[in-house]
Specification:
The chain has one domain. The protein has 313 residues and is of the alpha+beta class.
C-alpha cells in the first residue's frame, strides 16, 4: 500500500527572486575566498562562481538534472504557466505554514517520483520547466563575513566544471559564445520572472484565495499498488474568488494573475494524465481513481480555522 505522500516542500524555498551578475575573469566584485559563502538553490549540491575561463559540461539533449530525476515537484515561474499547464498540474505549496507560497508543477504522485523521466531522459513530448533547463547554472545567494550580499552570482554546479570535456563559454578574447548568450538570457529572464511569481503568490495569499487540498487515487493492487494520498498542496478557492471585491478583481486582471488562476485550475485535470503515465509504467495495471469513481479526482481537505486575510493590494 502506497499510503500518504507529501509534496516535497523544500521546493517552496527555491523560487526567491535573485539579482543578475555578469561574470569576469576574477568572479566580479565578489571574489571567491574563505570569507564568502554561497548558498546553492534547491537541488544543487555545491556551486561556485562562474568565470569566463570556466569550461562547463552542459546537459545533453533530454538529460535531466540529478535532483529532478527523483523529485515529485519542480518550481515554475510566472510566464511558464501556459506551457506548464498543458502537461502538469500546477499547485501552490508553502514551507513556512502559509506565510509564503510558491507555484510548482507536480511531476509524480509518490515520493521521489518523476513520471516524466524514464531513467535516461525527460519525456520528449513534455515541456521541461526552466528551473531544470538552466542547470548546471544558477543564480545563488552570497554571504560575505556572515552578511548576506544584495547581489546574486551566476554560479555553476562544481561537478560540471571539466577542463577536458567541458565547453568554453567565452573565447580567448573574452567574447561570449552564442551558446552562452542563450544561457545568460535564460538565467536573466528566469530570475526577473521569479519576482513576478513571488508577487503573484503574495497577492493570492493576501486575498485569502489559497486553500489546502489533497489528491486521492488508487491503482490496481497488482505489484503492490494501492491507495495513494498526495498532500502538501494548495489551490485557488473558486468560492473565495467569487467573493473578492471589484478593486481586487481589477488588480488580478491588471497584473495578469486572473488568467494564471484559470490556467492553474484547468491544470488540475492533469492529475489524470499523471495517473495514466503511472499506470503505463505499471502495465498491465488499470487505475481506478478516487474513492468511488473511475476519473481523476482531487479532493479538498478542511482548511485551517484561521483563513488568510483578504487585504487589498
Amino acid at each position: 500500500m502506497e499510503g500518504d505522500r507529501t509534496l516535497d516542500l523544500r521546493i517552496a524555498n527555491a523560487t526567491l527572486s535573485q539579482l543578475s551578475y555578469h561574470p569576469t575573469e576574477r568572479g566580479g566584485i565578489l571574489h571567491y575566498d574563505g570569507r564568502v559563502q554561497i548558498a546553492p538553490p534547491y537541488g544543487y549540491t555545491e556551486v561556485v562562481p562562474f568565470l569566463k575561463t570556466s569550461r562547463v559540461r552542459l546537459l545533453a539533449p533530454g538529460e535531466a538534472p540529478p535532483f529532478v530525476r527523483q523529485s515529485n515537484a519542480i518550481p515554475v515561474s510566472y510566464t511558464e504557466f501556459q506551457l506548464v499547464a498543458r502537461e502538469y498540474p500546477i499547485v501552490f505549496t508553502t514551507g513556512d505554514e502559509g506565510r509564503n507560497f510558491a507555484a510548482v508543477a507536480v511531476l509524480g504522485i509518490t515520493a521521489a517520483e518523476n513520471l516524466f523521466y524514464d531513467g535516461r531522459a525527460w519525456a520528449s513530448d513534455a515541456y521541461v520547466p526552466a528551473y531544470a533547463r538552466r542547470y548546471p547554472f544558477c543564480m545563488a545567494r552570497v554571504t560575505v563575513d556572515r552578511q548576506e550580499h544584495k547581489d546574486r552570482l551566476i554560479c555553476v554546479e562544481k561537478s560540471h566544471l571539466d577542463e577536458e570535456a567541458g565547453e568554453s563559454m567565452f573565447d580567448g578574447e573574452g567574447r561570449p559564445a552564442t551558446k552562452w548568450t542563450e544561457i545568460e538570457r535564460l538565467l536573466a529572464e528566469y530570475e526577473a520572472d521569479l519576482e513576478r511569481s513571488r508577487e503573484m503568490c503574495a497577492i493570492l495569499g493576501d486575498y485569502g484565495l489559497l486553500e489546502p487540498f489533497s489528491m486521492q487515487a488508487t491503482l490496481a493492487k497488482e505489484k503492490g499498488a494501492g491507495p495513494m494520498h498526495l498532500t502538501g498542496m494548495h489551490r485557488v478557492s473558486e468560492r473565495n474568488l467569487e467573493n473578492l471585491n471589484a478593486a481586487q478583481l481589477k488588480n488580478l486582471l491588471r497584473k495578469g494573475i486572473l488568467a494564471r488562476i484559470y490556467l492553474h485550475l484547468l491544470s488540475l485535470e492533469n492529475f489524470a494524465r499523471l495517473l495514466d503515465r503511472k499506470a503505463a509504467q505499471r502495465a498491465p495495471e488499470r487505475e481506478t481513481l478516487g474513492k468511488e469513481s473511475g476519473g481523476a479526482k482531487s479532493e479538498p481537505v478542511q482548511p485551517k480555522s484561521e483563513k488568510p486575510s483578504r487585504r487589498g493590494r
